[in-house]
Design goal:
Ig-like_fold; mainly beta; 8-stranded mixed β-sheet; Immunoglobulin-like; 5-stranded antiparallel β-sheet; T9SS type B sorting domain-containing protein; T9SS_type_B; signal
């Protein structure tokens, strides 16, 4: 039996340390806003505050008004509404409401602060919270493009008791009457910084965090460590599992409001958790499932809870579905249907949904169970209530459109359906009926939580009409639909998000879509033929053969004469060819047994080409053959080889045809090399794509019904293949039901797509410092010698292919250029050479890389980049004698300067006066000044800036400074 404590409330523990509480009383609060005018930006703004009347009654009773700020506007003093009821746990709920007209759309922060919080909050300043003021804010974004708006309201008060060692849960019960999306995140509680401004509390510590003044880190209710404190961003469930110390704790979180992907507001709730030491166990609610219903469904959800101690229970529920924001006659109701003294209670949630409840976002319904002292509790006066909370979501979708039908239009020659359906149940202004179509019938049955139509189902939207319409003619945008094809139709109602209701200017339409209608599947009368076969009988460059087959018209053309009809067969080259040329004319009286729906097309290049065919149907009309319509073109099957490996052949095939080749087993054939011309089926492939189908042959025969013909594939051999596609018009009136067509024969060898390993390149580069000054005198062209080695792996360490048969050399004049192809090293010789001499260069400067090429033409990644630069050669003498004796008459570079692109040379006398300058690389200074006058003997100083040919595009010129003695 439970033993009561001498004092259960944490307040008892705090009483001895309580100071002057006349100014400390605020437990929790938040600000909400509601637009109340359809013609002006006038809002009703409410601050809901929760005051501690056990430890701060005087201050709580005296808080008759508070001051608001809207941005920098304020203070706006607002009086308290009366009465202000006591909601239990020593707390009163206080409301301060005023109206305010905003000057223009924009982003506004509404805030208020009160001095002070109630005392002894453990996770705020070590318990000295009575000296910390309370500050909350709400951000409201007014945007005319988003429609009218009001903030969510928080229906569940933020004051509940939590017990040490037991899981605590709080949910704000946020309800947004506009149907906006809500999200939640934890923030740090704030205090006032200045007028209308707040700042985070630096003394705040999360409730489950160990501090010098806070509780020890404990375990969860189930014994796991450490205890946790979380906020679910989607549901708003705030869970502390589990407290370890009796005390007051404050936390804060933001409720974000989103519309059409735009954040349009947020509310901060600063709330208090009162943790007590209690022998009482919290009650438990049974799990509650989320619900999805069509508008018009009556929801009756049973809710049960129990208490293992046998305490008497109270069951309540909060939700926007109980509020008058909804059509009053359709408000939800909650009632308790069973309650006993055995710790059991049962309630019923009942809601008759209707069209006005349709919306994109779900409705949240919060259920709360609270216990009271039962007959087994020794001292009921010491009992303190504990709670459990659960929320469940209700999604209300538009009902399915009903009684959809699709009938061919009355004009038998037209290719269109007339769709009809019953008047839609929910005539919401601005709603539309979306019409979807797909080829083929399906057995898809939408679940109650599957509104709209997923693109994966293959439907495409073809039109939208107003919600009041009940028919639509689908002629494929004027192009006409295809005969012989079954079409599936479905309807979905789409509801607008924007717009207001006249009786409530703050409420938006709900948005979203309905559940899809039942499918209606039909096809058009087949007045014209359908091509059923384009199969390759023989593969040749000049004598290829293709057989084309088509159906007879299923019904006679209305008004046709009794004369012969005519088929005209056209052919184009290529899978998508449009250059149709008539190749045959077949007259017919549509007589049974007459072979008039087959043509063998000969002397084609089926090796290189696919071919596309079309049949035009002419009927007798008043003695004249008149074209009724033409068939959808159909191509032959084209088989190709795609990249594979040296031990595999990878095949791909496609056909451009009006029937459906997907979801069928296509057949793969390989020629028996021991019996040329004999093809064995080696596999059947289930194909699902709509364009290209693939199969990789590794030599294994996976179809054993005609014998096993497994072989080892070699890149040195050639193998021949054919593919047989299997398709259907998916129409029971088209015969044959399955359509078989062969591709051309393709003969190929396995190809290795694995790149060879990149070589490792070296470039013969001499040491410039060891070269003599005249190393390159008299030389006009230069040579670079490259050599490389093969490697066993790529730069990433991955294995790479071998079998190199060639190397490619790439060259760039400058280091910052992308090298371009220079030359190839090809066999012979055998073995393959691994060096290359690049001759005929104007200098050594340049960069190289090398790639390896295997027998399948696969080229490796580049080798390392190897660059060579020139060795600068430029030296000047220190004396010259311009006396015209033919010896040393000019000041010029010693030996032969090489690789010089540009020189800027300046000479000065001993007083620093410039006497000579030139840009001639040979200088050829003859002892005269720039005016052609002889300079006197003496010492002259020079400065030369020399730009050399280099592998670096913008290499800095080398600077030479010195002196020279001029002697006459």
């Amino acid at each position: 039996m439970r033993q009561p404590l001498p004092c259960l409330l944490v307040l008892c523990l705090m009483a001895a340390g309580t100071q002057d509480v006349s100014a400390s009383h605020v437990r929790a609060g938040e600000i909400t806003a509601k637009r109340i005018s359809n013609t002006s930006l006038t809002y009703e703004i409410t601050f809901t505050a929760y005051y501690d009347v056990e430890n701060g009654k005087g201050a709580a009773d005296g808080q008759n008004n508070v001051s608001f700020y809207i941005g920098d506007v304020g203070p706006i003093q607002v009086n308290r509404k009366v009465p202000y009821p006591n909601i239990g746990n020593g707390t009163t709920r206080n409301e301060y409401t005023f109206t305010y007209t905003f000057p223009a759309p924009g982003r506004f922060t509404i805030s208020t602060s009160i001095i002070n919080r109630n005392a002894n909050i453990c996770n705020l300043g070590g318990g000295d919270s009575g000296q910390i003021d309370f500050f909350v804010r709400t951000t409201l974004i007014i945007n005319s493009s988003l429609g009218l708006n009001r903030t969510p309201v928080l229906l569940n008060p933020p004051i509940d008791l939590a017990a040490v060692g037991q899981r605590y849960i709080h949910n704000p019960g946020a309800y947004d009457a506009d149907g906006d999306s809500l999200a939640y995140r934890l923030v740090v509680p704030q205090r006032s910084l200045s007028a209308g401004k707040g700042t985070d509390l630096g003394v705040y510590v999360p409730p489950n965090r160990q501090t010098s003044f806070g509780p020890p880190i404990g375990a969860t209710e189930d014994g796991a460590t450490p205890s946790t404190f979380t906020l679910d961003s989607l549901t708003g469930d705030l869970v502390w599992d589990a407290p370890t110390k009796p005390c007051f704790y404050n936390v804060a979180f933001v409720v974000e409001e989103w519309r059409n992907g735009v954040l349009i507001g947020e509310i901060v709730r600063d709330m208090q958790i009162i943790v007590i030491e209690s022998p009482n166990d919290r009650p438990r609610l049974d799990p509650l499932p989320d619900l999805c219903v069509e508008a018009g469904t009556l929801i009756q959800q049973t809710i049960t809870a129990n208490d293992k101690n046998g305490d008497r229970l109270t069951l309540t529920s909060n939700s926007g579905v109980y509020l008058s924001d909804l059509v009053p006659a359709q408000n939800a109701q909650f009632s308790v249907v069973m309650q006993n003294d055995l710790g059991q209670i049962k309630g019923t949630f009942r809601w008759q949904t209707g069209c006005d409840h349709i919306r994109l976002e779900p409705y949240d319904v919060l259920v709360k169970v609270e216990d009271a002292a039962g007959p087994n509790f020794p001292n009921p006066s010491l009992f303190r209530k504990l709670v459990d909370i659960k929320t469940f979501k209700i999604r209300v979708y538009g009902p399915k459109p009903q009684n959809l039908r699709a009938e061919p239009v009355a004009d038998a020659t037209a290719r269109a359906f007339r769709l009809t359906w019953s008047a839609y149940q929910c005539q919401i202004p601005g709603a539309q009926i979306a019409i979807y179509r797909k080829v083929g019938c399906s057995d898809f049955q939408a679940g109650v939580c599957q509104p709209g139509l997923s693109p994966a189902l293959g439907y495409e939207e073809v039109a939208r009409v107003g919600v009041g319409e009940t028919f639509f003619v689908d002629d494929n945008g004027g192009q006409g639909l295809q005969r012989g094809i079954s079409y599936s139709y479905r309807l979905v109602a789409l509801f607008p998000r924007q717009g207001t209701l006249a009786d409530d200017p703050g409420r938006l339409n709900g948005g979203g879509s309905s559940l899809p209608s039942a499918e209606f599947c039909s096809d058009l009368p087949q007045l014209a033929p359908l091509i059923t076969h384009v199969t390759v009988d023989s593969t040749s460059q000049t004598r290829g053969v293709i057989t084309v087959r088509w159906t007879r018209p299923a019904v006679a053309v209305p008004g046709a004469d009794a004369g012969p009809s005519q088929y005209r067969l056209f052919r184009a080259t290529g899978l998508d060819g449009t250059d149709f040329t008539q190749i045959a004319t077949l007259d017919t009286r549509l007589q049974a047994g007459v072979p008039d729906t087959l043509f063998v097309d000969k002397n084609l290049n089926t090796t290189q080409n696919a071919y596309r065919y079309r049949v035009d149907y002419y009927y007798p009309n008043q003695g004249t053959l008149t074209k009724l319509e033409e068939t959808e073109p159909a191509s032959s099957v084209r088989l190709e080889q795609v990249q594979g490996t040296s031990a595999q052949v990878r095949l791909a095939w496609m056909a451009n045809v009006p029937w459906d080749n997907t979801n069928r087993l296509h057949r793969i054939y390989r020629e028996d090399r021991s019996q040329p011309g004999t093809f064995n089926r080696i596999a059947e492939v289930q194909v699902q794509g709509f364009e290209t189908f693939e199969y990789t042959d590794d030599g294994t025969d996976r179809f054993v019904a005609d014998g096993t013909h497994t072989i080892t594939l070699s890149p040195d051999s050639t193998y021949c293949y054919r593919v047989e596609t299997v398709g259907s018009y998916n129409n029971t009136r088209v015969r044959p039901a399955l359509l078989y067509n062969f591709s051309q024969t393709l003969c190929v060898s396995p190809t290795d797509t694995t790149r060879p390993c990149p070589p490792v390149l070296a470039l013969d580069i001499p040491d410039c410092a060891t070269l003599s000054p005249d190393a390159f005198c008299g030389q006009s062209d230069y040579t670079n010698t490259l050599s490389w080695k093969s490697s066993e792996s790529s730069a990433t360490g991955a294995a790479c292919g071998r079998g190199v048969v060639a190397y490619k050399i790439y060259f760039a004049r400058y280091r910052d250029e992308e090298p371009t192809y220079l030359a190839s090293v090809l066999p012979p010789p055998i073995p393959l050479a691994t060096d290359y001499t690049h001759t005929g260069l104007s200098s050594f400067a340049g960069c190289y890389y090398v790639t390896a090429v295997n027998r399948f033409g696969q080229e490796s990644t580049p080798s390392n980049l190897a660059c060579r630069d020139n060795c600068p050669q430029f030296a000047l003498p220190n004396v010259f004698t311009p006396n015209l004796d033919g010896k040393n008459d000019e000041f010029a570079p010693l030996n032969c300067p090489t690789f010089v692109e540009e020189v800027q040379f300046v000479a000065f006398n001993r007083w620093g006066t410039k006497v000579f300058e030139t840009t001639d690389a040979t200088l050829k200074w003859n002892g005269k000044n720039s005016a052609g006058q002889d300079l006197p003997s003496g010492q002259y100083f020079y400065q030369a800036s020399v730009q050399f040919q280099s592998v670096e595009r913008d290499r800095v010129p080398l600077q030479y400074k010195g002196w020279v003695q001029l002697v006459r």
